[in-house]
Design brief:
The structure holds 2 protein chains of 2 kinds.
Chain A lengths: L1 H12 L5 E4 L1 H5 L11 E6 L11 H9 L3 E3 L2 E4 L2 E7 L3 H8 L2 E5 L2 E5 L2 H11 L2 H13 L4 H10 L3 H4 L4
Parallel strand pairs in A: 2-5
Antiparallel strand pairs in A: 1-2, 3-4, 4-5, 6-7
Helix pairs in contact in A: 4-5, 5-6, 5-7
Chain B lengths: L5 H18 L3 H21 L12
Classes of the chains: A alpha+beta, B mainly alpha.
Chain lengths: 164, 59
């Protein structure tokens, strides 16, 4: 897993991706108890092509040249299925900008904060997101002032009322 | 209103404390636990036709 993060950091250093942060269940695990999951969700800022389009193709081609194989919606990096999710809205973009560095062995790993993970889970709105929100609420020491600010600015406050 | 026995209350409290203790573990230790969970779940998922790759361990 540490090698996986090293490869991701190399992608940033090499300009292949702009910025990344761990999200999803593996992101939540930085703050809460471990739960079963089978992929590593990576939110990523991708460089725009001259046409203005954003595409994962150059990233996948680069990783393929390094010997990493695509498998469904993931690419296996050092034995870990990684799913790259381009920042798809303002909330995720803001989460990426505010990601915090955590240590994993000798490697620094940018991770979405517990507040952004909670807000993104509420916005996504699946049953497994509800479970994640409850776990983060009980275990992550959420800063509710920060969370409230995020929810208000992204029009999620009303939706969030049934989630806590 | 549901009244809980002292025993049940104690049991729920212990469960909650256990979860908090797990949440406070170092991330590497959580990943080790995750890989154990994946190792248990993967054959069951594969038997149902779902893909399940167990993460490569750091060790």
């Amino acid at each position: 897993m540490e090698k996986t993060f090293t490869v991701l950091n190399d992608l940033v250093d090499g300009g292949i991706i702009g910025q990344y942060a761990v999200g999803g269940a593996m992101g939540a695990m930085f703050y809460a108890e471990p739960v079963s999951t089978f992929d590593l969700d990576i939110f990523v800022v991708l460089p725009r092509l001259t046409s203005g389009l954003i595409t994962l193709t150059p990233l996948y081609e680069h990783l393929s040249r390094l010997g990493y194989i695509a498998d469904g919606e993931c690419i296996i990096i050092e034995g870990v299925p990684v799913q790259f999710l381009p920042a798809y809205n303002d909330l995720v973009e803001e989460g990426l900008k505010n990601a915090e560095l955590h240590a994993y062995g000798e490697t620094s790993v940018p991770v979405l904060t517990a507040e952004y993970l909670t807000a993104i889970a509420i916005q996504t709105g699946r049953e497994k997101d509800r479970i994640r929100v409850h776990m983060l609420r009980d275990e992550a020491g959420i800063d509710y002032l920060k969370l409230d600010d995020i929810l208000l600015r992204h029009s999620l406050k009303e939706k969030s009322l049934s989630w806590f | 209103m549901v009244l809980m026995t002292q025993e049940l209350q104690h049991s729920l409290e212990a469960k909650s404390q256990r979860r908090l203790a797990l949440a406070r573990l170092p991330y590497k230790e959580k990943v080790r636990i995750l890989i154990e969970l994946q190792t248990i779940a993967a054959p069951l998922l594969r038997a149902r036709g779902r893909k399940a790759i167990v993460f490569r361990s750091d060790e």
